[in-house]
């Protein structure tokens, strides 16, 4: 063991320190400075989130992923974790075309905090992925209903209700599709999508051979949307109901009035020729 012996300083100023006089104080200052610097940089992960977002914007997806995952390791919960999970889901869904992995991150975000600022976006992405990506229509209905139940304040419930009706139509459950559109028109009659919903409902009711209900909705539709872009299609449905019910002359006149407006002229021509033959046969 080394023993430091007391020896006299030739200069007469006392015993010298075994360390250089300035080394220890500077080391302490450096240590304290490093601690202060780390504390100042510990902003809850905001700077790292910004850098990760910049990497994603520049197309460096995998670099961004690693940065977001670093945020998750350092901050497993809280606002930074929520944003990191949401961005990871977006990268995998939009940039890497891996919706299965994306949905894992979105769901993890919802499990972490269903009331946070990114939860609505995550739930909406899940619903859309399940419907359009996975084509799991039953689950998609559940996910859109979750949006309606949990995020009414967003003001998009009418759109989610319309998606539910569209899914039922897609799987050919027309009765339920009509019921869902009725719900939309009852609860969200002033929403921008109400006009489209009324038009779709009229089409579905005709497909279900419910012309009485078609006429009821037609009256409401014509009064509320006189300049509708679907006016010709709705008139075509009304004329078709008249034809089916045997009111041939009235049906013919309705179809004839659409010659300059209807978007499928061959179909309209076929209808007119068919009714003409039926009228002649009756005579």
Known CATH architecture of the largest domain: Alpha Horseshoe
- Name the helicity range: over 70%
What percentage of the residues does DSSP assign to strands (E)?
A: under 5%
The geometry reads as: elongated
CATH superfamily of the largest domain: Tetratricopeptide repeat domain
Mean pLDDT: 89
Structural class, judged by helices and strands? mainly alpha
Please render the helix and strand layout as text.
Layout: H1 23-41, H2 46-57, H3 61-74, H4 79-95, H5 99-112, H6 119-133, H7 137-150, H8 157-170, H9 174-187, H10 194-207, H11 211-224, H12 231-244, H13 248-256, H14 265-282
Plain-language structure description:
The chain has 283 residues and is mainly alpha-helical. It folds into three domains: 46-130, Tetratricopeptide repeat domain (Serine Threonine Protein Phosphatase 5, Tetratricopeptide repeat, Alpha Horseshoe), CATH 1.25.40; 155-225, Serine Threonine Protein Phosphatase 5, Tetratricopeptide repeat, CATH 1.25.40; 230-283, no CATH class. It has 14 helices and no strands. The protein has helices at residues 23-41, 46-57, 61-74, 79-95, 99-112, 119-133, 137-150, 157-170, 174-187, 194-207, 211-224, 231-244, 248-256, 265-282. Helix 3 packs antiparallel against helix 4 (79-95) and helix 6 packs antiparallel against helix 7. The relative contact order is 0.04.
Short précis:
This protein is mainly alpha-helical and 283 residues long.
Keyword list:
disordered N terminus, 3 domains, elongated, mainly alpha, Serine Threonine Protein Phosphatase 5, Tetratricopeptide repeat, 283 residues
